[in-house]
Amino acid sequence: MIQKKICMIGSFGVGKTSLVARYVRSIFSDKYLTTLGVKIDKKALIVDDQEVNLMLWDLAGEDALTQIKPMQLRGSSGYILVADGTRASTLEAAIDLQSRVQAELGPVPFTCVVNKLDLRETWEIDEAALTRLADLGWTFLLTSARSGEGVQELFQTLAERMVREKKADA
């Protein structure tokens, strides 16, 4: 069995905890639960006929007073940058976070997620912002932790990239 650590990174209230809960337990709750420090979940899946155990580190959201600690990132095989489609500032924060996380981890696989697709009619993040992500060469997905849309694909795709890049390095 292969074990891979993935960090969920983003501003407060973007849906990191909800994405993990939807993926691991197939649940969604409207109750907002602030993550203090880190919450770790795990889920096994199959990649290229191999069992992969994902260790999902849901890190507390970042703001002006709270920043991700480098020790929380160490050992990560990949990470997910989460932005809230209804708050454009969270995408800018995710873009800023990516450069800091990459400086700490090096070029490990990551995916940017614009969450809350179920609220698309109230989004502040527009097509121009999504085009910017594509121009950066980023893999990005649109998800909804509430409906589950794109959630399975998010974790499966990142797990496949992590496993295949590790094989390519060997």
UniProtKB/TrEMBL annotation:
GO molecular function: GTP binding; GTPase activity
Keywords for the protein's UniProt record, in alphabetical order: GTP-binding, Nucleotide-binding
Gene3D superfamilies: P-loop containing nucleotide triphosphate hydrolases
InterPro entries linked: P-loop_NTPase (IPR027417), Rab (IPR050227), Small_GTP-bd (IPR005225), Small_GTPase (IPR001806)
PROSITE patterns per UniProt: RAB (PS51419)
Pfam families on file: Ras
Official protein name in the record: GTP-binding protein
Gene source species: Granulicella sibirica
